[in-house]
Amino acid sequence: MKIGCPREIKSQEFRVGMTPNAAREAVAHGHQVLIETQAGAGSGFDDAAYVEAGATILGTAEEVFAQAEMIVKVKEPQAVERKMLREGQLLFTYLHLAPDPEQTHDLLASGCTAIAYETVTDDRGGLPLLAPMSEVAGRLAPQVGAWTLQKANGGRGVLMGGVPGVGPARVVVIGGGVVGTHAARIAAGMGADVTVLDRSLPRLRYLDDVFRGQFKNQYSTAGATAELVTQADMVVGAVLIPGAEAPKLISRAQLSEMKPGAALVDVAIDQGGCFETSKPTTHADPIYEVDGIMHYCVANMPGAVARTSTIALGNATLPFLLNLADKGWKQACAEDPHLLNGLNVHAGKLTYYAVGRALGIDVVSPSLVIK
Fold it and tell me: Residue 118: which of 155, 93, 152, 143 has the closest Cα?
């Protein structure tokens, strides 16, 4: 199979869909790998590393899209990239379609087959291709939140760990999954007073057992969230409903009850955000203020640490990439129901129910399109 990897063009996105090691593995499996020139530069991989791995370097994204049977990316295809997709072509990347009707309609119109990293599952009920970036984003959240809290950036001027005689920042993490756990762990490590909210009692017990009081946890209700938010210096939104739009857990009305200059870090922004006042931002202009509350809503947070993120993502995606290339997407999905769960679009049809519910589009069962 001809596997193409274009350079990412989303603002301030430095990751790349394939590392040289991934290219080497694909070539060893008998596939041809086409890399757009300088695609890996932002992650520290030059063209020579790909050539050494056996890949072919092409001068433009147009050449990659025109020649490749499968396109491997990191972020959702931008409008100019969607125009280059064609019927029968396979796209393997993050999509986050539920809050993005324009992208969804463009993918349907293209006739391509699109498998989304974020909805591929595993036999433990996890999301193996989302998890590495969730880990990165979770660990970044307290770091960028601490920066947002600095007075020069519009924040409260509160130090995460405080100093002797001055208490630490109060951090509330909404969601105790992968993002929330890593965010709480790092925030607590910075010396903050951290509380994690979650609606799963088994998950709360797990956090309590594993982290042995490094941070507090509380069952998540609307009342508990409202109370803790008013006390918080920082709130990290870390909720996830796989493939679906994130629920709005803090309303604009609640902002007036928060401490002036408090920071909201919305890690769920890729799925529409979990705060009513959230809107996507970029690394170039990451924060904005609403009613005295600072919002950090960068839609590709892991892109800030591109090398770490690229290698972590590549480790997770490679087995699936090789499976798709070796067997073809239909056979690979037929043999692996977890990979089939990643199928979002095929030949003008939407195949993921949560996206259909969010956007009001009819959905075809993915099991029907692989027959």
Answer: 93
